[in-house]
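Help!! Second protein's tokens look totally different from the first
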Amino acid sequence: MGRRKLKIQRLETMKARQATYSKRKTGIVKKAKEISVLCEVDVALLMYSPTDKPTLFVGQEKGLSDVLERLSKLPFEEREESLIFLMKILKKIYANSESDFDLNNSPQDASDNPLKLYEEQLGELRQRLAEKSKILRDWKDPNNVEDLAQLNLMEEHLVASLGGIRKKKGQFAMELQARERGAEMDFQ
């Protein structure tokens, strides 16, 4: 008895989806581990189950932060080219299948004009920088603040910080007392 070819489409029941995910998850993690070892490549695999439980696999040599840092160092255009290439492959794979897989909602559409995307991101970052710079100036010289809401926010922050300092001070005092009691016990 051989295997029959499965029609790749979304499973209707949550129970069936979870069962299939559980069976196939082990296989895909095993394949990721194998390619990591055999080809000595950096691998980071992140999957979410139908019940939103994450599974993370990172190759043996480097940690997740190293892999993500390496990805972030790639030029934007190169990352977008890789994504477009991947989407073309997926289109070929799913072209002949009766799958519900929708490639039209891909991030490729956003990459049609990377310059526009950069400009939007730059505008948002400049706005955030201006807001943070104003807050920093207010902290440096609170006498120049003329906004009551900003003064209230600064006061709340100071009260919260003071509470944290008092808590830490209490912890240190308790640790010191415990050490002193331990030293007294050792002395006797």
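Here's the second one for comparison:
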Amino acid sequence: MAEGDTGSDQRQNEEIEAMAAIYGEEWCVIDDCAKIFCIRISDDIDDPKWTLCLQVMLPNEYPGTAPPIYQLNAPWLKGQERADLSNSLEEIYIQNIGESILYLWVEKIRDVLIQKSQMTEPGPNVKKKTEEEDVECEDDLVLACQPENQVKTLDFDVSENRTEIEELPPIDHGIPITDRRSTFQAHLAPVVCPKQVKMVLAKLYENKKIASATHNIYAYRIYCEDKQTFLQDCEDDGETAAGGRLLHLMEILNVRDVMVVVSRWYGGVLLGPDRFKHINNCARNILVEKNYTNSPEESSKALGKNKKADSEGLI
């Protein structure tokens, strides 16, 4: 029993960290010990017309055998409209029993709000909230945020029928995040086979700055069309559990055929749990920027139908 509880706790913690990375200030911790959270959802982040607060409590049995306990808070949400939205959330849970579903719930609610905003009825007045954040960059540690040229030759034995897909894919570098002298930067490449994963890693390690990073955490997901399963794996590179958390984020976002590497250059100050937040934020930002994130409907279908397949270790 205790072992099962530990597994649920780990999955919950990974989902909570992923949600915080995805939604930032929209995500709020009400009671960390009781696992109660609230997220403010609107139809448009920059110019919201309709807003709703979703409050959830995660029971010990979630996500294995029990759904989150939730409450929908909005002064305009009443009657049939409330019942319809509740039914939609419960249907998502039924379709994805045993899976993490908070992301699907949030995006389903956002879809409902967007549809509502497109109707002729005006929405309630909501004050616009903006915030500018300055991002520090250490020029001697970070790479230019631009794709590298595609390189086609790296002495690998490649069969003729796989030559085209086993070329080194283009690699993009994300905007770095610096906190207390530690710098984090994500690198992304499209991959369709494990050999490409090796090639991307080899290419990245040719860069002295990346090779000198304290940690190079990575995860990848490759969709196997014939088996309708995912080939996926991750690596902590000395940052305990960071690879698994990164892979969990990619699962929640339902990305496919992509690899993300997050480099961390340690600055001498311990960051505690904040380091995982920065790793996930870096990864999410570059996945969104490169349009790898799916619509909630596609995510729901994928989570409901696809089985996962772990690959053998790369190194």
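Reply: Different proteins will give different token patterns, so don't panic. Confidence is low (pLDDT under 50) at residues 125-142, 144-164, 295-315.
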